[in-house]
Amino acid sequence: MKDRAKVICHMMTTIDGKIDVEFEPSADYDKVGDEYDRLLLSYGQAYGLGRATCQSDLETDLSKYKGVPATYEDTARRYPEGTIICVAFDRWGKLRWKNNVMDCAGRRMPIVEAVTEKCAPEFLAYLNDLQIPYIVAGRDDLDLELFLQKIKSLCGVETFVIGGGSQINGEFIRRGLADEISIVVAPAVDGTRGALTIAGTDDLTGFPQYYRLKDVRKLPCDGLLIRWSK
After folding, report:
1. Which residue of 55, 126, 149, 169 lies most exposed, with the fewest beta carbons within 10 A?
2. Residues 64, 66, 68, 73: is their CA dihedral positive or negative?
């Protein structure tokens, strides 16, 4: 392994393996969700989400940033000890933000964007204006291993938690970068055909990936924690 952050893919699913449920959860289901959040905050120093998971309906006219100085140099730096960073993977600069923090797992996390050189300079100027740091991790597409090296060297992140959606999880797993998979199983069956699972990608290069069982533990309110490692 190169000198990079360790990766834990951490997800919550139903008994039938679904991650994007549409039913009205029970109180016990919500309590298992609270345990999922607690584990997330205990695993690492940064938590990552794919673009679709972070997508909002906000609109911003980037034309006002035309000509504003912005470079394709990393602006992410170390945060005070105890800070958990929320990383948004946004290869082409499509996300729009209200501010530079995200409410996640009952905690306010500073946002860091992972981008590529395909992002317009106006988008980088927009991030600078909102004081959202970014890591440039690739020219045409995201180089996830480079990202893991940079988030460790720039931000001091030893363990990075990737928490969805299905596409970005699948990219980490198929490239052999998910060192551990942590699944919190909630006591419900969704039953929907074709619903999203923890990993799904159109590019199956590198699959299947194999893991060894590390731990199984009963959680409060009839939940279950299962952990596998490479």
Report:
1. 55
2. positive
Amino acid letter, 146:
L
CA distance 148 to 5: 5
| pLDDT band of 2, cuts 50, 70, 90 | confident
Position 41: which residue type? Answer: L
3-state secondary structure the chain: CCCCCEEEEEEEECCCCCCCCCCCCCHHHHHHHHHHHHHHHHHCCEEEECHHHHCCCCCCCHHHHCCCCCCCCCCCCCCCCCCCEEEEECCCCCCCCCCCEEEECCEEEEEEEEECCCCCHHHHHHHHHHCCCEEECCCCCCCHHHHHHHHHHHHCCCEEEECCCHHHHHHHHHCCCCCEEEEEECCCCCCCCCCCCCCCCCCCCCCCCCCEEEEEEEEHHHEEEEEEEC
- What is the maximum alpha-carbon separation in the chain? 56
Q: How do residues 154-206 score in pLDDT, each as one tens digit? A: 999 999 999 999 999 999 999 999 999 999 999 999 998 888 899 998 889 99
Find the mean pLDDT for residues 137-158.
97
